Each structure stands twice: as C-alpha cells, then as structure tokens.
ABC transporter ATP-binding protein
Amino acid sequence: MTTPPLIELAGVAKRYREGDAERTVLDGVDLRIAPGEAVAVVGPSGSGKSTLLNLIGAMEPPDAGRLRVAGEELSGLGETGRTHFRRRRLGFIFQQLNLVPTLTVLENLLLPLELNRRLDTAGRRYAAELLERVGLAQRAGSWPEHLSGGERQRVAVARALVHGPQLLLADEPTGSLDGETARGVLELFDELRRERAMAALLATHSSEVAARADRIVELRSGALREVSAACS
Ligand SMILES: Nc1ncnc2c1ncn2[C@@H]1O[C@H](COP(=O)(O)OP(=O)(O)OP(=O)(O)O)[C@@H](O)[C@H]1O
C-alpha cells in the first residue's frame, strides 16, 4: 500500500484584485508532498511562493481547486477549524517572522505549546532544548527587539518546531543568517525530518537551501513545474 500524500493540491488558483485589475498569481497548480519529504519552491520575486505557502497553511482560501493537507480538505474547514489545523499540524516561519514583541524569547517559544494546551514539563524541556540547538540558550529572557535579525530568525525557527508539527512551511527560513548558522538551521530541519517524519516546504531564493531538499519545484507565470530531483 502506498502512503497517502501529506499535501495534495489539484488545480489550485489564486487571483488578487487591485482596483479594476485582476492578477492571477497561481493558475492551476498541482502538487503532492509525501510525509517526511522536503520540497523547495523557487521562482522569481513576486511569482507566488508566499501565496502558495499561505494557501497550504490555511491562511487564505484558493479561488479554485482542491487542497488537502494532513487528511483535511481545507475548503471544508471554517474559521475555527482552520485555526485548530494551523495550531496542531503546522509550523510556519513567516518572512516577517511575526514574533510577539511583548513576549520574551522563551515566552514566544512556549506560545504554540500553550495554544495546544501542552505547556507541561516535557514541553518546557523541549523548548529549552530547541533554544540550545539554535544557539540562543543565553537569550531566553531577551525581548525580540533587542535581538539581531539573525537571532530573531532563529527564534522563529525554534517556535515553528516546538509543538512537533507534521509539516513545516518556511518562507526564506535562512534569509538573515550567515552561512554557518544557516547550515545549522538546515541540519536541524533534516534531523527533525528523520526523527519524526516532519515534511517541509521551503520557499527560497537560496540555491544552498534548495539543493538540500529532496525535490525542487519552480513557480513561474502562475504555473508550478518540477525542476529536478535535488542532490542531497
Ligand atoms: N493580499 C494581496 N493582495 C494583492 N496582491 C497580493 C497579495 N498578496 C500577494 N499579492 C501579489 O501576489 C504576487 C505574488 O506575491 P508573493 O508574495 O506570493 O510572491 P513571492 O514569490 O513570495 O515573492 P518574494 O520572492 O519577493 O517573496 C505579487 O505580485 C504580490 O503583489
């Protein structure tokens, strides 16, 4: 028996209206991602990479097509269902990071556990371990505004992983990191994929990030195409 895909998109379209004009960003996109698989999505600026992640992350609905993620038909979920789906199943690293400025680094990390009612000893221990793994154990009590861009990005990485999501959606996850730190973060993703079959969809302009994925897909003129099997 073959394993059902974790992500299945069929004929997905997304259009945005700007004044009288309508712009088609995604035009009949098909995509399947298996549990534990890492896929890099590349494409020029404005080609729709973040839009694709937002649709798969149930942040906004498509205008056409089917989206099935972790057994859930996203179009069938209401607002509450979408919120629960995001909290339980997904880790999302946004391009703007979206750290909560009024919470410390550790409190930001504990937030997904709190929302999932899993703020217990094991959860706290894992949060501390992740902070250590992204090299920020000493900054647990710092405020986000006192961190460098790269440190903030690493907090966002740890926060996206702390509740053990089945799927990581990451928008330029290493954009503000130096080469060595970026490699450390990518290794952490790989370890978690091996440890708990977490799948990852990474939007990136970085050839190094893309090369580490199992597959690379490219968005161009609204269409998605397979570029190659990446070498690992
Ligand atoms: N909420 C919105 N309203 C109107 N247009 C939008 C909206 N969100 C995205 N767009 C448009 O959709 C297109 C795709 O944007 P998107 O952010 O998905 O591209 P991207 O490939 O992630 O770009 P980058 O590599 O620069 O981050 C852009 O032209 C953008 O202006």
